[in-house]
Design goal:
The protein contains 23 helices and 25 strands. It has about 775 residues and is an alpha+beta fold. The strands form eight sheets. It has a five-stranded antiparallel sheet with strand order 8-7-15-14-13, with helices on both faces. Strands 19-25-24-21-22 form a five-stranded mixed sheet, with no helix packed on it. It has a three-stranded mixed sheet with strand order 2-1-6, with no helix packed on it. The radius of gyration is 38 Å and the shape is elongated.
Amino acid sequence: MTSIFLKKRFLNFTNRLVLKKQDSIFVLFLFLSAFIYPLPFEVFNYKDQESIRIYDRNGYLLREIISCNQGRGRWTPLENISEKALIAAVYAEDRRFYLHKGIDPLALGRAVIQNILAGETVSGGSTISAQLIRNVYGHPRNFLYKIIENWQAVRLEHTIKKNEILEQYLNRIPFGNQTFGIEAASQLYFGKSAIELSWAESAFLMALPKSPTQYNPYRNFTKAKKRQELILRQLLEFRQMDSIDYDRAVHEPILLFPKTSPFSAPHFVDWIMKRPIHEPDLRTSLDLPLQLACEKIVQAHVEQLKAENVSNAAVLVADNATGQIRVMIGSADYFNEMRDGQFNAVFARRQPGSALKPFTYALAFDRGYTPATIIPDVETVIESKHGRFTPVNYDNQFHGPVRARVALACSYNVPAVRILQNIGVDRLLSKLHECGFRSLSESADHYGHGLTLGNGEVTLYELARAYAILANYGQPVELTHDETVSPFGKFRTRFSESSVFFVSDILSDASARAPAFGYDSPLSLPFPCAVKTGTSSDYRDNWTAGYTRDYTVAVWVGNFDNQPMVRISGVTGAGPIFREIMLLLHRKKAPSPFPKPSSVTEISVCGTSGDLPHNGCPYIMKEYFENGKEPKIYCSVHDKKGSVSYAAFGPVFKKWSEMHSQREKSIRTYPDDSLHPASKKAGPLFKIISPARDAEFRIDPNHLRQYQSIDFNLFAPEDITEVKWYLNGQLHSKKRWPFKTVWNLKPGIYILRAETRFKGKNLSDEVRFSVLE
C-alpha cells in the first residue's frame, strides 16, 4: 500500500513537470545562456528599497519614512554586520552557498523528495542567489519561473562575487513588520546595530525570513523561538559554534524592543519631507532634547490660557551664527485632531501686529532718525482714497513728545505711523520684501500706513528670519535645516550696522519699556535680549519675537479657527512662552551684550528734549548716536529752573499741551499715573514697589542661579538724584534714576531699605521678603 501511495504522489508531482517541445527548447536555451550572459548590475540598485531616516543634530532618530516597497531598510556593508549573523544566515538558508554556482543540486533533490512526499510544493530548494533574484525581480512562485529564477541565479554568480551576493541578500530580505534587511530588523527588534548581534539574536533574526508572517515575533514568538533553536542546533552540528557558545545561546533570553515607530518633531519632519532628499540618512539641525523641552513649555502655557480662549501656539528657534533651525513647533499638539494639530502654524499667514515696528525704526534710523529724536504722539488723521485713518495707542492715550527709544520700546502706535508718513509706505514695504516677507504680496497702497501696525499677513517663519537679520547686524540670512549649507547671502546688508544696534539696544532696554510694560514683565530677562510683541487689533493673533547674540526665538499664540482670544496681548500670551524658552536656551551660559559698533558714540542728553542738557534739565540720560549725528543744540524745553515749555516742540503739540496744562506732565511716565507725586497732597511719594511687601520667592533648581534674580524698584519724586539701597543693613548699591537695581536670589529672610535726600529731608521705605531653597 505504501509503495502505491508513493507512486501516486510521484506521478502527481511529475505530471506538472511535463514540458511541451517548445518549452524544452526554451529550457535548453536558458541552461546554455546562463554561463554566457551576466545580469545587468543596475537592477541591484538599492535606492528604491531604502527608507529615509531623519535625524536631529545629535543623532537621535526623528522619523523613518518607509520606502517605495512600503518598508523600512538601510543598506549595511558586510563588515558592519556581525560575523555570527553572517554564519547564521548561510546555515539557515543555504549552507553550501560558497560551494555552488547559483544552483545547489543537493538542495533541489531534497526539495523534490519533500514535495513528492507532501503531494504539493512545500520546498523549493532555492539558494541564497535564487532568493535574491526572486526578491529583485518579484517572480511568481510556479515551475516555469522557478527555471527562470535558477537561470538568473547562475547568471548572477557570473556577475558579482559571493560576498556581494550575500550582502545584497542580507540587505533585501523581509524580516516582517515592514522591515527589510538585517540592520533595520536588528534596530526594530533589539534596538541595536547588526554588528552587535549575539549568536542567539543572529539565529533568532535569521529564523524570520523563512515566513515573516508565520514567525512574526510580536504575534508568534514561540514559533520564532523554536526555529531559532533549530538554526542553533544546525550551527552546532556543522561545527560553526562550540558547545559552550551553543549552551549560552540557547539559554540567552530574547528581549524584544516594543514595536514603536519614532515620530518626534512632527511638524519639522513634515516640512523636511516636502523638500528634495538625496540621501537615505538625513542629519538635520534640529535639537531634539531642546525641541521636547519647548513642546512641554508650549503645552503647559496653552493649558493655562484655556480660560482666555487660547487653544494653540507655534514656536521657531534658530541659531544666529548658522541660521540653523533648532526647534520647530507648529501646534500645541500634533496628534490632537479636534484642534487640527497637524496644521503647521509656523507657515500660516497671520497679522503680526506691532512685531513689524522694529523694521520701521531700523529704516528710520538709516534715514537720519536717532533714538533721541522726538516723535509726536498726538492725535493724527491720515486721509487716503480708502478713507480716514486715525491710529490709536494700545492704552488709548496720547503721550505727547516721545523719544524714538521710548516710542519703540513701549510700542506706541501713533509715533510709528508718524515715522512712516515721513519715510513712505512703499519704502518700508520694499525693505520688508528685502527681509524676506514674501507673504506681503499686495501693493503699498493696499496696506497704507497700517503696514507698520501689522495689517498685512506674514508667517512666523518669515518673522523669525527677519529678526535673525537684526540679530546678525543686518546681514541677510536664510533659516535652514541643513548643517552643511551656509545660510548667509552674498547681497548687501539690509540695514546699517548702527541702525540695527539702535534697534537691538532699545528692544533690550527694560527702563525704556517700563512705562508701558512695567519692570517685571515677561519681557524682562536677566541678560541682554531684544524682544518685541505684537497683537492683532481683534485679538486673533498674538506674537513675541526677539533675539540674543546666540538665538532668535519667535512665538505665535492663537486659534486655528480664527476665533478671537479674550484680551490676550503679546505680553500675557506669547511673552511667557518666549521668556521660558530664552531662559532654557541660555541656562548654561549667559549671552554677551550686543557689541557697540565703532561708528556709534554715547553722550548725555536731556531725557525730555533729546538735546544737549543744561543745569535746568531734571532728567539727564545717556544715549547712542551715529558719529556725526549727535545733537548740536542745548535743550530749549526746560528753562534754567527746570520748568517745562512744550511750545518749544512746535505747534504740532499745541492741542496736546492744552489738554495737559492743568498738570505739567513729565516725559517720565509712571506705570500708574495716580501715584505721580504731583497728585499726592500728603507729601512726596517714596515707595518700594518691587519686591512686594512680605513676598516669597523660590529658587528653581532647573535653572542656573545666575539667571534667578529680582528687581529692586521704587516710585520717587522726579528731582531726586540718587537712591541708596540697603539689604539687611548692608549697603547694596547706589543708583541714579530710574533707581532700579538687580539682585540675585539667595536663600534667607531679608529686609530691603531705600533711602534718599529730598529738599533737605530724609525719605525712606522698607519691605520684608524671603527666599526659599
